Amino acid sequence: MHKLTTHLTRYRIIVIEDLNVAGMLANRRLSRAIADVGFFEFRRQLVYKAGMAGSTIIVADRWFASSKLCSACGEKNENLTLSERFWTCASCGASHDRDLNAACNLARLPESSPGAAHGAEGAGGEDHLAVEPAA
Question: For the whole model, what pTM was predicted?
Fold first, then answer.
């Protein structure tokens, strides 16, 4: 975890999602695996190391539909379930891998956030995916 968080702070802008970890822990089959990941500790390390490195952390709101938005046209797929790993946009016909699509949408978040463009703090009360290495 230390190596990964240190490596990520080489980027000028880092986008993370504010996940509902408590809700995820309610799933009895996944709770142990989720607890073992240590989301809170990962975020804590990333925030303090980014502050030291001069990186900006953008926190996507937990209700941001990163998986449900088509990264090609922006149409929202309201019917997408968690078990669907691949989907096709009804509007433009683009095929998406759920996780890759979410990553594309999160990578564009700094462009659409006026606060991030000026280096201000983002949603979640903290600074705001890695865009480019810091100089």
Answer: 0.71
